[in-house]
Amino acid sequence: MKKLSIFLIVLLLTGCVGMPHDEWAQNNTQLRNRKNDTSVNTPQSLEQRQIETRRYDGISERDLITASINLLQDLGFNFENSETELGTIIASKQRDTEGLEASFTHYLSSMLLLLVLPVTKDQITRVAIVVRPVLDSNGETIDDSHLVRVTFQSIALRTDNNTSGKTLSDPELYRGFFEKLSKSVFLEAQEI
Asked: Could you give the C-alpha distances from 20 to 10, 17, 25, 30, 32, in angstroms and in order?
């Protein structure tokens, strides 16, 4: 009976041992990432990918990338990273959002609540462009036929040094971008 009591006490105590914080945080992050996994093809993600992608025929990959770079420069973007050999371009532009209206609203709410609320001080718009060849049913590349996928992200930098970001999904934004890119592609093809 004494051995059984000791066994039950040891079993009870080992059941109370917790998981180390680092391991718990890692498991929790992995679980959260699984829940937010965007690599799963849902109807919404497929629809968004369709909005973000256009096919261009009759232009080389080099000329298509050049047209994309020219368009981004015309739109005021600064290049962060580009691997033209891989067909990727990443650029961003920053704008100051601490205007008179934002400051007035911030100070008014601070005075009413007697505390300083963080506000967005800068907003960064980041764009990523990927150009890849179109493949036929045999997996072979089709000459001068490419897919262009563009994604826009908005990143807000706040006065309390926190950031928040989101991928922009407005179809009008992408439609407008691809209209401008088509004009840029035409000008590049005509060598104007």
From this structure: 20, 9, 9, 16, 18
Cα separation, 93 vs 97, in Å, equals 13
- For 117, residues 6+ apart whose C-beta sits below 8 A from its C-beta are 106, 109, 110
Instruction: Enumerate the domain spans of the chain.
Output: 42-189
CA-CA distance, 82 to 86, in Å (whole number)? 9
pTM of the predicted model as reported, rounded to 2 decimal places: 0.67
CATH architecture of 42-189: 2-Layer Sandwich (3.30)
CA distance 36 to 38: 6
Tens of pLDDT, residue by residue over 105-136, are 545 555 555 555 556 667 889 999 999 999 99
- Tell the residue number behind the tokens 């407008």, with chain if given: 176
